[in-house]
Amino acid sequence: TYLGESITRKVQIINYCSNRTDYQVTLDTDLNFSVPSNIAAPPAAKPTPLEFDVSFEPSQMGSLREIMTLTSKIGGTYVCPLQGECLPPRPSGPYLVKPGYSVRIPFKNVFRVPTTFNFDLDDEVFVLLKSSDSFKPSETKEIVVKYETSRDDTLASSKLTVTATTGDHIGTQWIMYIQGSHN
Hints:
This protein has 183 residues and is mostly beta strands. It is 0% helix and 57% strand.
């Protein structure tokens, strides 16, 4: 998936336990994947698929791996490698805004460290409430963009560039498109 996004997939194991059991689920690092902490398995008269969700929300680009372990006293232990590929952030939008109004764009610091981001627009009829902001790890804030009336009454558009300026990922950029609208 892309940096700043998440994806959820079904994972399946085969339960051989003839009694009801609970599996405790753990990850070796807990950084980029999330899983339920417990999975209840009904009694299985024969080998039965047991399905659950695994989410991948990367905090850095590249190939990321973790080990997921499911453990039950009577059901045994399953060890499953997890792997996800993280690509650079992809553009988003357009975010629509009427002349004279503002649009609030949610933005999350996906990094595991506090990070400052700079905000830049490429059209002067759009104005930022702030030109930068500091985010705690995993914190979401809104970037507020106001659309001033354009000089010739045609609807304008702009590109908002969000750039990490501190932390381990200096220079990483997100692009968001802003579009003037009458609706």
